[in-house]
């Protein structure tokens, strides 16, 4: 066998290994399950590694330097696990860390904001965004939407209580409805025609939000659109898996049992969840 043939065969083997490698998906908690659900629907052959940084949620009240450090730690760990792509299933991370880490890691890294912005512009001209305080303060959605279409109007509201309420499984608590009415009030005054879920946790609140919003308001879930972007990227790089997938691997930095109990209502089964210690987190826990 000549060297060219050997390189070709080795390259083919290497590409097959990459195709069968997992896509890494991460969020501060269960919010990213909305992205995972779309991956199951639209990329059913892909194997997934899901990480929830539950020991440090919520991300939405953190500083940019903290978020950037957290994201770096997660990506270092995910690269060690052999992922072929990473999806930031977290708007706060996408807003505050995506551009920085893309230049630091040698793998495709996708965020949810640009796909969500493109989709929102296709739905309406008066766009409201509900987001974590950090995402709202970053103006990432406003900038992304206006870059796509400068003629639309955009209003953003920071919603600090939503993520803790969802993570505490209080979606149908009367207090959650009260908080949602308060957050949506200014957007309704602006007569929005489209509402963007500016946090991957927020689609879990759809039954509550729908009772408050007029039927004419379109709901835009960036989770759907980041998965479409992931599919395009996989095809472009020749990394789409065509074989049956491996079972999804779930990992958290906090309590595995709590995550498993909370996520069962959206996964339809109780996942097996492992606890992992990210290198920098482990270092901070040492005496």
TrEMBL record:
Binding site for substrate: 27-28, 59-60, 91-92, 200-201
Pathway: Cell wall biogenesis; peptidoglycan biosynthesis
Reactions the enzyme catalyzes: L-glutamate = D-glutamate
Coiled coil (UniProt feature): none
GO molecular function terms noted in the UniProt entry: glutamate racemase activity
Major enzyme class: isomerase
Record bears the keyword DNA-binding: no
Assigned EC number: 5.1.1.3
Active site: 90, 199
Functional description taken from the UniProt entry: Provides the (R)-glutamate required for cell wall biosynthesis.
NCBIfam families documented for this protein: glut_race (TIGR00067)
Name of the molecule in the record: Glutamate racemase
UniProt organism field: Funiculus sociatus GB2-A5
Lineage of the organism: Bacteria, Bacillati, Cyanobacteriota, Cyanophyceae, Coleofasciculales
């Amino acid at each position: 066998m000549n060297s060219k043939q050997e390189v070709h065969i080795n390259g083919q083997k290497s590409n097959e290994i990459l195709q069968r490698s997992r896509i890494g998906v991460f969020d501060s908690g269960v919010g990213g399950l909305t992205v995972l659900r779309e991956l199951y629907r639209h990329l059913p052959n892909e194997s997934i590694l899901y990480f929830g940084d539950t020991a440090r949620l919520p991300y939405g009240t953190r500083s940019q330097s903290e978020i950037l450090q957290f994201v770096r730690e997660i990506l270092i760990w995910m690269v060690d696990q052999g992922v072929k792509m990473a999806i930031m299933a977290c708007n706060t991370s996408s807003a505050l860390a995506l551009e920085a880490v893309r230049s630091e890691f040698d793998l495709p890294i996708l965020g949810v904001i640009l796909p969500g912005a493109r989709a929102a512009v296709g739905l309406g001209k008066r766009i409201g965004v509900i987001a974590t305080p950090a995402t709202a303060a970053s103006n990432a959605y406003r900038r992304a939407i206006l870059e796509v279409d400068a003629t639309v109007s955009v209003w953003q509201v920071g919603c600090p209580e939503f993520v803790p309420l969802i993570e505490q499984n209080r979606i149908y608590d009367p207090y959650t409805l009260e908080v949602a009415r308060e957050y949506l009030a200014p957007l309704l005054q602006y007569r929005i025609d489209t509402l963007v879920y500016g946090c991957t946790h927020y689609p879990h609140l759809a039954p509550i939000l729908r009772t408050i919003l007029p039927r004419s308001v379109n709901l835009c879930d960036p989770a759907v659109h980041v998965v479409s972007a992931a599919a395009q990227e996989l095809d472009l790089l020749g990394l789409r898996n065509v074989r049956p997938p491996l079972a999804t691997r779930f990992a958290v930095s906090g309590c595995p049992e709590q995550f498993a109990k909370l996520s069962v209502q959206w996964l339809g089964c109780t996942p097996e969840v492992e606890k992992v210690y990210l290198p920098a987190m482990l270092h901070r826990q040492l005496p």
